[in-house]
Amino acid sequence: MRSLTLAEARERSSLITVTSYAVELDLDQGAEVFGSHTTVRFACSRPGADSWVDLKAHSVETISLNGEPIDPAEVSDGRLPLKGLAADNELVVAATMAYSHDGQGLHRATDPADDLDYVYGHLFLDAAPSVYVCFDQPDLKAPYDVTVRAPLEWTVLGNGAATRTATGTWTLATTKPLATYFVTVCAGPYVSVRDEHDGIPLGIHARTSLREPLERHAAELFDVTKRSFDYFHGLFGIRYPFGEYHQVFVPEFNAGAMENPGCVTFRDQYLYRGAATRDELLTRANTVSHEMSHMWFGDIVTMQWWDDLWLNESFAEYMSHRALVDATEYSDAWVDSSIVRKVWGYGAERSPSTHPVAGVEALDAQSALQNFDGISYAKGAATLRQLIAYVGDDEFIAGVRAYLTDKSYGNGTLADFLGAIETASGKDLEAWSRAWLLTADRDTISVEIDEQGGVVESAVVRRESPADRPADRPHAFHVAGWTDGRELARASVTVTGPVTTLADLEGTPEPAILVPNASDLTWARVRLSDSTVAALPSQLAQVPDAQARAVVWSSLIDGVHGAAVSPDAFLDVFDAAWPHESNSSILTRVAAYAEHRVVPYFVPRDQQDAAVARLNRAGVGLLERATAGTTESLAAARLVAGTSDDATLLRAWADGKGLPAGLEDDGDFRWIVVRNLAARGLVGVADVDDFRSKDDTLQGGLNALMCRASLPEADAKAWAWEQLTTRQGRSNYEMVHLARGFWVAPDDALVEDYVPRYFTDVPAMSGWVGEDALSRVVLVAFPRVFTDETARLSAEAIARDDLTPAVHRSLVDADAELREALASRATFGAAV
Ligand SMILES: [Zn+2]
Questions:
Q1: Rounded to an integer, what distance in angstroms lies between the CA atom of residue 22 and that of residue 40?
Q2: Closest Cα to residue 166, out of 180, 145, 148, 188?
Q3: Distance, CA 311 to ligand 1 centroid (Å)?
Q4: What is the Å distance from ligand 1's center to 26 Cα?
Q5: What are the DSSP calls for 164-229, one per residue?
Q6: Distance from the CA of 341 to the center of ligand 1, in angstroms?
Q7: Cβ pair 55, 47 in contact under 8 A
Q8: What pLDDT sits at residue 830?
Q9: I need a labelling partner for 785 at 20 to 30 A (CA). Which of 81, 150, 556, 720 fits?
Q10: DSSP 8-state symbol, 440
């Protein structure tokens, strides 16, 4: 179906003002379809003019405009033409809609644990017309009255407070004006925990089979929720206006969460079934706070068009970290940002698909989605930190408050936002925003020292901007240095040119390691000196500053991807520093990165067993030392479970024997063990089914699919490929898990026949898998056969002109990673 263009949206919003929506959904029509009866009241500024509404129905029963019937056959390509509009209009559409299984629209899932069904609406970015007829664009906001008919035993939640009015019928309170993509209904036998804070009724909800983790995690979830409310009320000076605040943990959710006003949806993996590491709790707290900050920035004030979607996300990314640091126990949230979010963003920046943070023309809604990535979140947030350094924090917050107040319940643009900051700060942001927001790519920063007898004589910061995308970006950051854990140097620096003198370092002893951007305030490629890299194995573990350690790891990861740091050098630092890491985010993320990225991508096939054995030794060492039940112990146990080649140990753990303390009953941990057993061919299909029967849940089913796809047998690969590429009933999550297991193989021979098939079979799924879900499948299913032949086929595929934007974008990104792996292997292949 065609995607709304910017030109169409502008024309329509100049003509139409929507007054109200009344939506009646009938969710009691079985598992395939639901009823949707919608009344839209709207004004037309030029009576007599024509327009259209968006409608993607399974079937349309009746349509009337101002009392006159319209033939349902008029609906074409997702649009219903409206001819000869009056000044005030009433459109009534009765239609039957289809539930989705790809996480977009009104998604319906069956929980295998108890065969109960759950429904939730995820209408971002343009799925609203598959639930109700609407003018689907972000600047046509209106209040909603929603009623829902549902099976008797179901609970219904939505943007407005829900009241059960008659048997099986629920009425939701009238909402404030909402953009179409914020409307949601969650319905099913959800279980709930309720609370209240500062006059705001709070609820958290999940599937019946997740009652235990929901109740176990409720105190922590409500604590972060309450602290975030207090913090944002104080910071923004505007009361939360959407009534009740519900957080619903829903199955098979594509993203982390969605900021529907009053009814935020979260992926339900956040209700950790087993033991959770501290960084997992931090990540979830961060998501809670992130979505809440959207209630102001995104929901009260919505971007006018999708090209400013980045501003929502950059802002929420920044605000959630700020709130965690200022108002919760997660005072190390920026460390997590460095090793998780910015590593993701730097990956996006390295890809040929990189783009400016802002100002990327989005000619239609779907193309806007292609630029919605690590640049929008991580780089955008880092850019806001640089903006604050440039204009001052008080001035920034004053500008934000003015923007939110001026545009309440309406829409804003980047120009509106920057204008408010300029007014509040008195600073002209034209040159700043051109360099930081409107130019893609990043500077490389490094520090050069001249020393005499171990004392710094002179030091300079070098800033190089990319030759093909020149920009004059000012940077504010810190440079710090350590020897044997003692901080010998720390300087605050504002860089406004290619070379900046660091006078503060003159006369200080030369530190063994020197870290540019040590507090990670800016966005840049951080190039560590050769002497610093050489000293890391003996020095990094002693650096007491977790933020600086995260910057070092991020720089090493960047260096591995750019063939500047060999995987062997990375593993040398890993062996020496990782087992002593005290920050939970660095500990778990660096281990996962080493296991799932550095070794399989950058270490040549014939050396991978030795590299995995190194990781395993580090894990075993830490597991022996760590206190049971701590993040250290859990991170070590997961690394051991994923990397061990000790069949006796793995079989015992899989059978629940001799497990590390705290993991006795942990279904998710067992699946890490089973996956390793499956990949090594130490279990078969029947064994996987057996483990599945011990964990007959949604998560258990997904893990079983992944394990079966990982089996090193031709039959298993053929089965998995057929299931992935031709079984149209498979959910978004099932496809991703099949893809995750598929390329796991002891040698290329087992899977190399599927390399050419990937480039034909996977793009062909466009017809029946939603773009959002398919973009993930394309990335995860991309061949892990790192050869020139794969690169040739990949280049050929990218040049095709029949790919959808999402498929094309994901292919470009996966191809870039393949080429990074090939370049690293060519540079360092023999050295590991
Ligand atoms: Zn967000």
A1: 7
A2: 148
A3: 10
A4: 30
A5: EEETTEEEEPPPSPB-GGG--EEEES-EEEEEEETTEEEEEEE-GGGHHHHHHHHHHHHHHHHHHH
A6: 13
A7: no
A8: 61
A9: 556
A10: -
Q: Which amino acid is at 821?
A: A
User: Residue 259 C-alpha to ligand 1 middle, in angstroms?
Assistant: 7
Q: Rounded to two decimals, what is the model's pTM?
A: 0.97
Residue ranges in the chain modelled with pLDDT below 50: 831-832
CB 28, CB 151: distance < 8 Å: yes
Strand ordering across the sheet containing 59-65: 68-70, 59-65, 88-98, 33-44, 16-26, 144-149, 169-172, 162-166
Q: What Å distances lie between residue 558 and 381, 525, 675, 761, CA to CA? A: 19, 8, 28, 32
Question: For tokens 């972060």, what's the residue?
Answer: 224
Q: Catalytic site residue 820?
A: no
N-term to C-term CA, the chain: 50
| List of residues 6+ apart from 813 with CB closer than 8 A | 348, 351, 353, 779
CA 147 to chain centre: 31
- Closest to 413 (Cα-Cα) out of 356, 355, 358, 357: 358
Task: With CA atoms as reference, report the closest residue to 182 among 99, 267, 302, 42.
Answer: 302
- In this predicted structure, what is the pLDDT of residue 362? 85
For ligand 1, the distance from its centroid to the CA atom of residue 522, given in whole angstroms, is 21
> Which pLDDT does position 398 carry in this prediction?
98
**CA of residue 291 to ligand 1 center, whole Å:** 6
* Rounded Cα gap, residues 189 and 183, in angstroms: 20
Residue 263 alpha carbon to ligand 1 centre in Å: 14
Catalytic residue among 252, 291, 313, 817: 291
Q: What share of the chain is helix, strand, coil (3-state, %, to 5)?
A: 45, 20, 30
Tell me the CA–centroid distance for residue 403 and ligand 1, in Å: 18
Could you tell me the CA-to-CA distances from 11 to 44, 45, 139, 288 in Å, in that order?
A: 12, 11, 12, 37
pLDDT score at 832: 41
Structure token digits, residue 652 = 């015992």
Q: How far is CA 583 from the centre of its chain?
A: 22
- For 560, phi then psi, to 5°, come to -65, -45
Calculate how far, in angstroms, residue 831's C-alpha sits from the geometric centre of ligand 1: 43
Burial of 624 (0-12, 13-18, 19+ CB in 10 A): exposed
Q: How far apart are CA 462 and CA 596, in angstroms?
A: 33
Angle between helices 211-236 and 278-296 (to 10 degrees): 50
Asked, as a colleague might, if the bond just before 125 is cis with ω within 30 of 0, I would say: yes
User: What's the rounded Cα separation, in Å, for the pair 477 and 492?
Assistant: 6
- How far apart are the CA of 387 and the centre of ligand 1, in A? 20
Burial of 796 (0-12, 13-18, 19+ CB in 10 A): exposed
How buried is residue 606: exposed, middle or buried, by Cβ count under 10 Å (0-12/13-18/19+)?
A: exposed
Q: How far is CA 89 from CA 10, 20, 84, in A?
A: 20, 11, 10
Burial (CB count within 10 angstroms: exposed 0-12, middle 13-18, buried 19+), residue 21? buried
- What is the Rg, in whole angstroms, of the alpha carbon atoms belonging to the chain? 27
